[in-house]
Amino acid sequence: MTLHDQYDPDNIFAKMLRGEVPCVKVLDDDVALAFMDIFPQAEGHTLVVPKDVEARNLLEMPAEKLGPYMERVQKVAVAVEKALKPDGLVVTQFNGAPAGQTVYHLHFHIIPRNEGESLRRHAGGDPADTETLKGLADRIAAYI
Ligand code: 5GP
How far apart are the CA of 103 and the centre of ligand 1, in A? Predict the structure, then answer.
């Protein structure tokens, strides 16, 4: 997929937003859905997806929706930090396949980082155990 293409309404995150595909939720309000990444690069890896937009990436996000969406990204990042107390946090976002993007609905990654721990593979490997993700999501959601 290139940086510029048609929005695919059947991408996996669009299906989650419509409730057609399950996810382990951390936050669900009128602006955004946040849930645990199924291939976590570190324990607590969370994704924040905007609702009611057909934006494949940050470049396509309507500017007037960016503020409320970024408030949710920050809110989830704060909650991840309070719940898991990592040494650091990566908050990142990829635009286009050459940049590392694999799902074409805008999302931010929130990835806890700890001294001496290397980042696991991006968007691959074995999926995380659902019960483990639910435990982490409950701990994070307690701070939202
Ligand atoms: P991107 O590569 O587009 O920046 O990030 C997509 C993210 O979505 C990856 O970190 C990948 O692990 C995650 N992901 C892909 N499919 C699923 C899924 O079905 N469920 C969940 N929870 N995460 C997914």
Answer: 7
